[in-house]
Write a structure and sequence with these properties.
The chain has eight helices and four strands; from the N terminus they run βαβαββαααααα. The chain has 201 residues and is of the alpha+beta class. A four-stranded mixed beta sheet has the order 2-1-3-4. The longest helix is centred in the middle third of the chain and has 26 residues.
Amino acid sequence: MSEIKLTYFNTRGRAEVTRLIFTQAQRKFVDNRIDREEWAKMKDSTPKGQLPVLEVDGMMICESAAIARFAARETGLYGSNNKEAAICDMVTDSIGEVAHAAINKMFSAKTEDEKNAADEKIYESLKPLEKLVAQYKKGTYVLGDKVAAPDISLYSMVAFCTDANPEFKTDSIPTIAGIAKSFSEQPHIAAYLASRPKTEH
């Protein structure tokens, strides 16, 4: 593969899973973080007028989930067969409900009652995900003892829930929490997490 360029704003947001996938695979890529002024100039040149976009061999790929899956497949982090790929899909797709609840807490909930209700929704939506991950987990990580895409998505989800609620507790999701901890403690990932730009989200 020739040069890979991932373009997004200077925030974790919808691009961080892909950044972590490339970092995990130790695949070089251009982490192109742009401001609003730069975005205004390039918006019309993107497929849907949205970020992130990934440029590979003259092709511009949009939609954060499609980008992350492409990156995982290109780097060998999406399982070794269709069954393992299906497990990757089940886990990553199931994270959507949790992410939606966290986004609601961060950007929509205004009153204390609304924030408390949003927290309850986060915890409630985590229950079936923890059950799913525990059912299919084969080793340290979801697919065994090597990191794959769903492990990275789970780590990012836990971080996002913590952004939404600094007092977020992982007691009810020990399997997910264990995966997230193991992933983040790898030396090359720990180095990336320590050196990446400090952003709110």
